[in-house]
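Backbones bend. We report:
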Amino acid sequence: MNVIEADHLSKKYGKDSTMVEALREVSFSVPQGEFVAIVGASGSGKSTLLHLLGGLDRPSSGIVRIDGEDLYALKERERAVFRRRKIGFIFQSFNLIPVLNVEENIQLPLLLDHRQPDKEYIRDLIQTLGLTDRRKHLPSELSGGQQQRVAIGRALAYRPAIVLADEPTGNLDSANGREVLELLKLAVRQYHQTVIVISHDMNVAAEADRVLRMQDGRLMSDTRGGSGV
């Protein structure tokens, strides 16, 4: 089953002489449990593509289906709820809530939805992330690598259909970057997640199941990754 389907996806900014085509007729699909890296130079369209897959921006044309749902056929409020329940986000800047501890930050998507967290699953997730002894710590009391692990936990807390990661190793040193990459691979194996990562880091591409290479807003190649997961 394809969890993600992008069909002739395009995005234009401005008009007439100032128009920029950030994305041009991009089509691909991703089955459940696949780890996909989107790579390309700055300005290639990979961030735009990620934002459209995550419902953070509207395409100029084309369709995005997540778990069979036409994302942009939903009304704004419906899409916000769908995004919270079905799409996990991991950002380069972590985006943790400074007044919430590790456990509260991880549970945040569920709490925002007035859902009772599955305590056993959350406890297992925190243990898998190596944060058991840090679960009551605030973000300011954590290293950068630990904060990114919390962000991964938050993205996985709702058991979303897909996880979208925007340069997740960009603010980390090589050791912590490797650790985060291993955790994303673990999410695919252990939690059967579908993970899409955009990155300049060729180590990410080498570890992915598939590599989508973007250039000038177009999908130039779709190939199998290096060692896989």
The mean pLDDT is 91. Residues 2-224 form a domain with the Rossmann fold fold (CATH 3.40.50.300). Helices lie at 46-53, 76-86, 102-112, 119-128, 144-156, 174-191, 202-207. The chain has one domain: 2-224.
